[in-house]
Design goal:
Layout: E1 4-8, H1 12-40, H2 47-69, E2 77-81, E3 96-102, H3 110-121, E4 130-136, H4 141-164, H5 171-174, H6 188-213, E5 228-233, H7 235-241, E6 251-256, H8 267-282, E7 287-292, E8 296-297, H9 302-310, E9 319-323, H10 342-353, E10 365-368, H11 386-390, H12 394-401, H13 415-424, H14 448-458, E11 462-465, E12 473-474, H15 481-500, H16 505-511, H17 516-526, H18 529-548, H19 559-579, H20 586-601, H21 603-617, H22 633-640, H23 653-677, H24 684-710
Parallel strand pairs: 3-4, 3-7, 4-6, 9-11
Antiparallel strand pairs: 1-2, 5-6, 7-10, 8-12, 9-10
Helix pairs in contact: 1-2, 1-19, 2-17, 2-18, 3-4, 4-6, 8-12, 8-13, 15-21, 16-17, 18-20, 18-21, 18-23, 18-24, 20-21, 23-24
The chain binds uridine-5'-diphosphate-glucose and manganese (II) ion.
């Protein structure tokens, strides 16, 4: 019986390929046009020639980006799973270690983090096969306290969920509109129990908040500190106490690695590697579920769904991870900034899934632990000289050799093991080892997950993508321009940096075991800032040329003008063909397109520029922006109404405003000339491009003004 099914999207694939063929002819024609005219220019030292060269460069940027992008459109697939067909008994299922990451209680409210922890404990999976770890990179004592409280609450919450088959197992979500379907009357007992559990939940919240506010327990980041590892709930002890299956809860562990101010900590990558080692000698499950702290489990069956891939003998030998999409519970209908990043989760990931697998997205994925240590098909190559790779811990090295992949469940977690775990979580442990290089998550890129996933694909591992109707996980997206832009800048800077490093897809990638089309997809992501260069050039050269009276497009009666029109239409259609079938409308497409244009000349562009500057002066940013998960009510309101909120965008406003004004002035001057001279044929191309930008800007301004009027 099949566990999963993979379907190539049709007729989409055929249409995409047909379009690919036609569009490439148009692109070739344009390249020919630009090059041939460049050669015939009489004097190459004129402004005319200069403008011509720049606009050509802009076009080349678009064309190269388009070419890379075709990898993501070559073979899009959709997958289904059939968890009921898993023939394993519960006792035979492989164990899973859940890793939840948090780094700053001010930006990541502790009660919300605990909600994620509780939702993970409540996964529908045998409790003795599940362990939940919180990696607290803030080392905040209040988080530890909250874990203990969360654990007591979980002892009531889990039995309640199991008894009534509740799906929304994140308590906060359950008591919000998200849990409406689960709160419908089941029977009288249910109502009473729900009321009681609600009180307990409020009590839990209060306990945590009060402990923090009263100052009894420190609720801040502790930047310089020794490691702390606490087993909050030990499976073994738990088992002895109760014989009722319904009452059992999984193992729960709090980990705060050592951090020293003078030591590099490598952000989440460093935190994850420490946790890999610590969990290795405690529960050592062969599979990991990785969750950002805001990303709670919204469907308890996700673990079994993921196992439909990991247990499939055809896929499993080379399968490194199963990725679920990031779905956000706070995305509004108009989603003016496109914070849901539709293109990634609805188009690119499906496209890559049909080649070698989706990008590792940082959260919501089930990873094979060994994939981070070796390559597929090599049997335990790392055991040759383990100390050189993994460091000196005997216990950890022994954990790699565990016969069945994980340490026996009956084992008691002794003080010895905790002490060893602390050594494994110390700053010095990684010195002189391969952690962050060959082993574990890579430190060579700030987007540790995407980049480590890329390296996994380079080693020949594959991945799969599952996009179920009910979101398996739900997270929180930034809902203002500042928050979302900072995130974009951070991502683009990290990706561009990877694209400029020695690991770039064009040299390193092409020589590795990655599939060629997959490599194109990574090139698309890592050189995405090409697009913003194309944008910036197109948003400036045509209008500057209008001001200076220079012609950069063919005359209207020139057949080449038609080629440009076709190229433009073909590009827009390609763009629409992605977003409209995904349940969108022309309006939704326009919102998304507008957001991309605005970000393209601001945050995306600055991210790329930042990476290039850092490459030249040879530094790598030591600071990393942490997305805010404590969403401001005011900001949320504006966003939900579909109104732009430009507050705090700072630097980003500079290119945005400059280019808007430039186009406005260029457009007016150009239009004026047309009226005076009654000749439009040589400037129409520029006029259209400029007016397009002006149109975008005006539509944004209307939004902002109408909002100011409303409020
Ligand atoms: O020094 C750090 C910084 C962050 N984190 C955690 O990493 C997660 C992701 O950080 P966030 O600021 O929310 O990043 P996003 O921009 O939302 O996330 C994307 O980009 C990150 C890389 O910048 C990836 O790590 C994420 O998994 C990916 O979802 C959060 O749970 C943090 O608590 C740490 O553990 N240590
Ligand atoms: Mn996040």
């Amino acid at each position: 019986m099949e566990l999963n099914r993979c379907t190539v999207q049709q007729p989409t694939t055929t249409i995409y390929r047909l379009h690919m063929f036609l569009h490439s002819l148009i692109m070739l024609a344009l390249v020919y046009y630009r090059l041939s005219h460049l050669l015939y220019l009489e004097n190459v030292l004129t402004l005319q020639a200069f403008a011509w060269v720049l606009i050509t460069l802009g076009e080349v940027c678009f064309i190269v980006k388009w070419f890379f992008g075709q990898g993501t459109r070559w073979r899009p697939v959709v997958r289904d799973v059939f968890p009921d067909n898993i023939t394993y008994q519960d006792s035979q299922l492989p164990a899973i270690d859940v890793m939840v990451f948090t780094a700053n209680p001010k930006k990541e409210p502790i009660v919300d983090v605990m909600n994620t922890v509780i939702s993970a404990m409540a996964l529908d999976y045998p409790t003795d096969k599940l362990a939940v770890y919180l990696s607290d990179d803030a080392g905040c004592p209040l988080s530890l306290y909250a874990m203990v409280e969360a654990c007591s609450f979980a002892k009531l919450w889990l039995p309640f969920c199991r008894k009534y088959g509740i799906k929304t197992r994140c308590p906060k979500a359950f008591f919000s509109p998200l849990g409406e379907d689960d709160r419908v009357l089941k029977n009288d007992d249910f109502v009473a129990e729900m009321r009681e559990i609600k009180l307990k939940y409020e009590e839990f919240q209060q306990n945590v908040n009060r402990a923090g506010e009263s100052g009894k327990i420190k609720d801040d980041v502790v930047p310089d500190r020794a490691p702390v590892i606490k087993i909050i709930n030990d499976r073994k002890i738990e088992k002895e106490k109760s014989d009722n299956d319904l009452m059992e809860i999984p193992m729960l562990v709090y980990v705060s690695r050592e951090r020293r101010t003078q030591r590099r900590h490598h952000f989440k990558g460093g935190s994850a590697n420490a946790l890999l080692r610590v969990s290795g000698i405690i529960s050592n499950a062969p599979y990991l579920l990785v969750l950002d702290c805001d990303f709670f489990c919204h469907d308890p069956t996700s673990a079994r769904k993921a196992m439909c891939f990991h247990l499939d003998p055809k896929l499993s030998p080379s399968l490194a991870y199963v990725q679920f999409p990031q779905v956000f519970y706070n995305v509004s209908k108009s989603d003016i900034y496109d914070v849901k990043i539709r293109q990634a989760y609805k188009t690119i990931w499906h496209g890559m899934d049909g080649i070698q697998g989706p990008v590792l997205s940082g959260t919501g994925y089930f990873l094979k632990r060994k994939a981070l240590y070796t390559s597929p098909g090599l049997k335990d190559e790392f055991l040759g000289s383990p100390e050189k790779h993994f460091g000196s811990s005997r216990k950890f090295i022994a954990s790699l050799e565990e016969d069945n992949g994980y340490i026996k469940q009956e084992k008691v977690i002794s003080e010895d093991i905790i002490e060893e775990a602390k050594t494994l979580a110390s700053c010095a442990y990684e010195d002189g080892t391969q952690w962050g290089e060959e082993i574990g998550y890579s430190y060579n890129c700030h987007l540790e997950s995407t980049f480590s996933g890329y390296l996994l694909h380079c080693k020949g591992w594959t991945s799969t993508y599952l996009y179920p109707d009910r979101p398996s996980f739900l997270g929180c997206a930034p809902v203002d321009m500042q928050g979302f832009s900072s995130q974009l800048t951070k991502w683009v800077a990290a990706l561009t940096q990877a694209g400029l490093s020695r690991f770039n897809p064009l040299t390193y990638g092409m020589k590795s075991r990655i599939r060629t089309i997959q490599c194109l997809c990574y090139a698309y992501l890592m050189y995405f800032s090409l697009y913003s260069w194309g944008m910036v050039l197109h948003a400036s050269i045509p209008s500057i040329s209008l001001l200076l009276g220079i012609q950069v497009y063919p005359e209207v009666y020139d057949p080449w003008f038609l080629v440009y029109v076709i190229a433009f239409i073909s590009t827009i259609l390609e763009n629409m063909s992605e977003s409209i079938p995904e349940g969108g409308s022309v309006k939704v497409w326009w919102m998304e397109y507008r957001a991309l244009m605005m970000m393209g000349v601001s945050s995306i562009w600055l991210g790329g520029v930042k990476a290039i500057i850092e490459k030249i002066i040879g530094t790598q940013g030591e600071k990393l922006y942490l997305s805010d998960k404590a969403i401001d009510e005011e900001k949320l309101k504006k966003y939900e109404k579909g109104k732009f909120d430009f507050q705090g965008i700072g630097m980003l406003a500079v290119p945005l405003i400059t280019l808007s004004l430039l186009n406005l002035v260029g457009f007016m001057v150009g239009a004026n000339q047309v009226i005076i001279t009654m000749r439009f044929e040589n400037v129409l191309g520029q006029l259209l491009i400029s007016s397009f930008f002006v149109f975008v800007v005006v539509s944004v301004v209307i939004d902002v003004v109408s909002f100011l009027k409303d409020s």
